[in-house]
């Protein structure tokens, strides 16, 4: 039987397991990437593992999420990251050089290679045939030390694209259509492989918009086959020699097939406050807009900003709103400036920003209270923009620019008729020619030892798993709790990301402000949640901080993939409960795991009995591989890896 492309790349990198869907496999990692909010902990953990040098073919550290320097803490973090990259042999991308996924795509992403990144949108270069997976920082540190990365073998689903996109529809509409059909949970345990004539018709930047936002489906990764378009893109980036032809076998067997006819796609929009709340733009037309943002790792490329720039040229954005364009990389920004597009946008009333994630995680350009913000980003979770009562819509650059001109949500096809606009299409430059001044290559490193300012703390360590877990249900939460709920990424909180003692004061503060204080007073306890607990970013702080506060177990109806791995990595027991148990258990209830926990985890026991308020009992399940059980028993991945290193 033939293989899918995912299976081919995994087979080439397999060190453990046998590609049976649902079973754990270990794979070799060729490249790792880190961003600034997760990177400090990666390097502190790398240091704690007593490793000398990055062992992967390539490691790259980016400074992109928090580039505005409000006080010394963030600058200290960036200096630490530069020193760590220099000390351990990684490339370093300075603040302002752009978003990790954009810069990585431009400079390092390579077909057929594996990439592990401490950011949930790491799958972006799947658009040029790289198998890229997001993971927690500790997994990155171990992979960078030469260890395998372990993941559940995903099911491979074929997304067959037919036809071609009509004018005014875009790659963003393809992934929004996927979200509309499959929802934010539809990709869990899956890789989506895009094939068919529609896939062939898309440029690499369009493909990476789709693979980037596959993360919102909960997918392990998303992938396109490589072809002349991939080769052409790499050649235009000056890296044509890195092209490799990669296709699935003709008789490859997929777990499922989804068919999308591109010619039937109309402009779509995700309404507040979930990326799968998708409707045609025309259904929400007329809604007044106060802010429009074009940028992010999804739609911040040269090819994304250019259509918006063409649309606003010789026009004026509506007086009551602000339109901000933050190119995803300095390469994109420089090229747009050289070609005169930046001046055209400025003349139209656009506020052109530096290349940063910033507003995507509520750092800068926070919307006004109770207003509508239209963004070309990938997430619109409530409060992520930096204000609780936000109304964030997600759309393509074309829809965003149309709204900026009209002052309200409008189907760009209607506005085109009204203003006589031509459909801007997607255009690649003859040659990508941004400078490389902000990339410090490993061989040109300027540091050879770590520089730790006062904001750089220690990596917290957990004791080995004990036999008893009992305590109060300190918080009962709903479905789809995100890592933004657990540890918000706004600048006032994020500045403590390298200092867990301080950061943990903000744990779950967006759900309950008293939580951290109550957890500290209790000294231990459990959390209860509904479906899809921990969706969103890869930030391991969302497991590290609860661990620091004494949380020993999370009882949820289901868990998001990366967060579940992070819970194991930090010694917190993730137990699955059914709907009935979830409904019955209340905040404040005392929960006791009846079994000898350490013994049960070690022995491979799946069913655990929980006793609530010494009154009623229910079953909770531990779905964990042998390796994950060893991690839990040791109190987390760091203690286990250290033990293994010491024991030879
Ligand atoms: Fe940055 Fe937002 Fe992407 S935080 S990496 S632009 S999802």
TrEMBL record:
It comes from the Archaea. Keywords: Iron, Iron-sulfur, Lyase, Metal-binding. GO terms for molecular function: 4 iron, 4 sulfur cluster binding; aconitate hydratase activity; metal ion binding. Residues 517-579 form the Aconitase A/isopropylmalate dehydratase small subunit swivel domain. SUPFAM superfamilies: Aconitase iron-sulfur domain (SSF53732), LeuD/IlvD-like (SSF52016). CDD domains: AcnA_Bact_Swivel. Residues 7-407 form the Aconitase/3-isopropylmalate dehydratase large subunit alpha/beta/alpha domain. Pfam families: Aconitase (PF00330), Aconitase_C (PF00694). InterPro entries: Acnase/IPM_dHydase_lsu_aba_1/3, Acoase/IPM_deHydtase_lsu_aba, Aconitase/3IPM_dehydase_swvl, Aconitase/IPM_isomerase, Aconitase_4Fe-4S_BS, Aconitase_4Fe-4S_dom, Aconitase_put, AconitaseA/IPMdHydase_ssu_swvl. This is Aconitate hydratase. The lineage of its organism: Archaea, Methanobacteriati, Methanobacteriota, Stenosarchaea group, Halobacteria. The gene is citB1.
